[in-house]
Structures are given as C-alpha cells and as structure tokens.
Amino acid sequence: MTYVVAEPCIKCKYGDCVPVCPVDAFHEGPNFMVIDPEECIDCSLCVDECPAGAIFEESDLPEEYTRYVALNAELAKSWPLIKDKPGPLPDADQWVDVKDKLRYLQMAETV
Fold first, then answer.
1. By three-state DSSP, how is residue 95 classified?
2. How many H helices and E strands in the chain?
3. Which residues in the chain land under pLDDT 70?
4. How far apart are CA 55 and CA 50, in angstroms?
5. β-strand partners of 57
6. Per-residue pLDDT, 13
7. How many angstroms separate the CA atoms of 42 and 39, rounded?
C-alpha cells in the first residue's frame, strides 16, 4: 500500500512532510501536494509530520477521500517534484479545518 495526500491539504500545503520523505515522493501544485505512488516506499514518516492530518495509508483512507488515490497518481505525473519544505500558504491556518475543499483544488497556476 502507498500513502495518499487527501483533502485536508488543499489550501494549506504546510510541507512538513516533504523533508522527512527518504525517496522524494512529493509533488507540488499551486495549493496542494501529492505523493507519487510509484516512488512511495510506505515508510509512514510523513504521516505524523502533517499538521493538517492529510496523509493516510491507502488501506486506512476514509471513504470520502477514496478519489484522492487516483488524484495523487494523476497529478504526480504532471506536477514538479519537491524536495525541500515549502512555506505553508499564507492563510493555511484558516483553511486547515474546513471540510469539502475539493472544489478549491487548483490543478494549474492561474494567471
């Protein structure tokens, strides 16, 4: 099983998970990060580092987040690899506990 970044990360992107990943499996989009399932070695180091509680083992993924398995795999192919901790989004603390954030997911930079 691989690990999956789910909805709580949208509009937060704290990034504490990135530097602990031993295989550089994280990819970064405008307001969300994903884990490449091809690179993830199932070490679970990222789970406890995520202040948003957004990372789940695929087998433990809450039902409302099942679509994020495919979303992580798809976006990891087109988003750039990230190896260093990014700064969180400016209003991350205001969004961390908001529910139903999928509609806010940015797939590409807006101009």
1. helix
2. 3, 4
3. 109-111
4. 7
5. 3
6. 95
7. 9
Annotation: CATH topology of 3-83: Alpha-Beta Plaits (3.30.70)
Q: Are 4 and 70 in contact (CB under 8 A)?
A: no
pLDDT at 35: 98
Beta bridge pairs of residue 5? 55
pLDDT the model gives residue 63: 97
Residue 10, pLDDT score: 98
Domain boundaries, the chain: 3-83
Sign of CA dihedral 59, 78, 18, 13: negative
pLDDT recorded at residue 111: 45
Residue 85 has a pLDDT of: 95
* Gap between the Cα atoms of 20 and 22, Å rounded: 6
One-letter amino acid for residue 24 of the chain: D
Rg of the chain over Cα atoms, rounded to whole angstroms, equals 12
Using an 8 Å Cβ cutoff, are 69 and 61 in contact? yes
Write out the E strands in the chain. 3-5, 26-28, 33-35, 55-57
Q: Which residue has the tokens 């957004």?
A: 54
